[in-house]
Structure formats: structure tokens, C-alpha cells
Design goal:
Order of helices and strands: HHHHHHEEHHHHH
Distance between the termini: 35 Å
Radius of gyration: 20 Å
Mean pLDDT: 81
Largest sheet: 2 strands, antiparallel
Number of strands: 2
Structural class: mainly alpha
Low-confidence stretches: 307-311
Shape: globular
Length: 311
């Protein structure tokens, strides 16, 4: 779980920021352009985002060595697997607010961009806590085991956007129209600016993802304590969410064992954090466990009948 002796400079952070922002802009200008993507487009873009992550990981491996490279790939695979739940939650949110399908790509891009900024703050705070208080490892471990328990019991099913504190605050403080106006979040009416419901959905998407980060960020800190790798893995996993959403949003009922698989992964990571002073689990073992459990989850889910769904 060490940082593999990596000396991360301000220039490296600046480079990662430029890459991340550049990819978000590319996504806005190409993928999220004024129409809902087809299944074929979504599949192509999903593969493209994975390919970009692999290219970054290989380059990072060649530059910083095998340990740093394996930490990135382990973190990316972990975040990518946990992001599957985000996809289905996004589907619930967009359906709840009846967001027009043509607006959804750009909305998700902006929402994920804001979520990445919020996650960066979470990552830096988490890293500082781990450096200052060793007991944080045990706190994170217990949190992950509790989350794994909830997932195994399928206690995470109900999503209530109306209970989102940020949404309540916006509705109280920001004058808002009662209908969408294309991709606009603000419109001028009778000489004053008003928000559209799209602003509320944007905030709910971003803040809901941060709630998911409460589980995923502690989990990746069990793989590496280097904030640069943690954020890079998060960025590449999150940037592919939009394409993954349009590819999988209508298939939630097919992933009947997803919660079980994620529960096993988080349980393993939680135990790994609790054993930090007894046994340092090798990175290759973490990568193997995550990959095998995720593969088995997908295979068993696709072979299961809908009637077998524990949900």
C-alpha cells in the first residue's frame, strides 16, 4: 500500500489535470453532441475509454515501474467495477426527473466533471488522514465491511432523489422554472435569470456520485496511498461512465448478482485494510481477486434467469 517511492511533482498533477479536462471537453464536443447515442456508439466509446485507460496505465508502468503500474491498474479495475452501481443509480435519477434523452449525454458529462472535482477534495483529505492517523486504516476497513454487508443484504436498492440535501437547498434558494429548456440550466424570463430543472438534476447526479465515493475512495486507498494514482484511476473510471450508462442503463435486471460481487470485493478490501499491520496483501493478489470476482459476477448474472434476481 505504499506509494512505490513515487515522487509526484506539481508538473505531473498539472499534466493529469490537462489530460482530464481535455478528455471531458472531447466528450462534450463529440460524444455528448445534441443527441442520445445509439447502442453501437455507446459500445465503441466504452471500448475507447477503456483503451485510453490502458494506454495511460502502460505509459505509467513504463515510466514509474511495475509496482506503480500495477497499483494504477488495480485501482482502475476496482473503481470501474464499483462504478457499475453508479450507472444504475444515474438511470433512476434521470428517469425520476424525466430528463429528455437528447439532453442526458451532456448532463452526465457536466455532472461527472463536477463529481471528479469533489472526489479530488475527498482524495486529498483521505490521504492526509491516512498520513496523520494510522487508525484511519481501521476506520476505512470497518466502513468497507459494513458497506459489503449492506450490499450482500441488498439494502442499497432504494434511491430517493428528493431526499438529496443539495437538491433541497437549491429548491429553497434558487428560483426555478417548472420545465426543461433544451440543454440550458439557466434562462432569462421577464428580465431575470431563472434556473431550469436541469440544474437540480446536475447537482443530484454529482452529489450522489460523491456519496458513492464514500465507499470507493477508502477501497482504493487499500491499493495505493498515492493520491496521484488514486485520482488518475478515478478519473479514467469516471470518464467512461457516460458511455457505459447508455450501454447498460436498460439492463439492470440482467445484473442480478452485481451486489453480491461488489460485496465480495469490498469485503476483501476491508479485510485487507484491517490486516495492514499484520500482512501486506500483494498488489497482484488484489488485482487477481477483483478481476476474478468481477468476471464471475458478470458470467453468473448473464446466465441467471430474471426470476433468480435477489432484488
Amino acid at each position: 500500500m505504499a506509494s512505490a517511492g513515487i515522487d509526484v511533482s506539481a508538473a505531473m498533477w498539472a499534466g493529469l489535470a490537462v489530460v482530464t479536462v481535455g478528455l471531458i471537453v472531447l466528450d462534450l464536443l463529440v460524444f455528448a453532441r445534441h443527441h442520445a447515442p445509439s447502442l453501437r456508439e455507446s459500445a465503441i466509446w466504452s471500448v475507447a475509454w477503456i483503451a485510453l485507460a490502458v494506454v495511460f496505465g502502460v505509459a505509467w508502468w513504463g515510466w514509474q515501474g511495475a509496482e506503480a503500474g500495477s497499483q494504477f491498474f488495480s485501482g482502475y479495475l476496482l473503481e470501474r467495477s464499483l462504478s457499475l452501481d453508479n450507472v444504475f443509480v444515474f438511470a433512476v435519477i434521470l428517469s425520476y426527473f424525466a430528463v429528455p434523452r437528447d439532453v442526458q449525454p451532456k448532463l452526465l458529462t457536466w455532472g461527472i466533471g463536477l463529481a471528479l472535482l469533489l472526489r479530488l477534495a475527498f482524495i486529498l483529505v483521505g490521504a492526509a488522514l491516512l498520513d496523520a492517523f494510522h487508525v484511519t486504516f481501521y476506520v476505512f476497513g470497518v466502513l468497507l465491511l459494513y458497506t459489503a454487508y449492506k450490499l450482500a443484504r441488498h439494502d442499497d436498492v432504494d434511491i430517493a432523489p428528493d431526499h438529496n440535501p443539495a437538491l433541497r437547498l437549491i429548491r429553497r434558494r434558487v428560483p426555478m422554472t417548472d420545465r426543461y429548456d433544451g440543454e440550458r440550466m439557466f434562462v432569462r424570463r421577464a428580465g431575470r435569470w431563472l434556473a431550469t430543472p436541469l440544474l437540480a438534476v446536475f447537482v443530484v447526479v454529482a452529489t450522489t456520485d460523491v456519496i458513492f465515493a464514500v465507499d470507493s475512495i477508502p477501497a482504493i486507498f487499500a491499493v495505493t496511498r498515492e493520491p496521484f494514482i488514486v485520482f488518475a484511476a478515478n478519473a479514467f473510471a469516471m470518464l467512461g461512465l457516460r458511455a457505459l450508462y447508455f450501454l447498460l442503463a436498460g439492463m439492470r435486471e440482467r445484473f442480478v448478482h452485481l451486489s453480491d460481487g461488489l460485496a465480495v470485493i469490498l469485503g476483501f478490501i476491508g479485510v485487507k485494510m484491517l490486516l495492514v499491520d499484520i500482512w501486506h496483501v500483494p498488489i497482484w493478489l488484489s488485482l487477481a481477486v477483483i478481476a476474478i470476482v468481477l468476471a464471475l459476477t458478470m458470467v453468473l448474472s448473464l446466465r441467471a434467469r430474471p426470476a433468480e434476481s435477489p432484488r
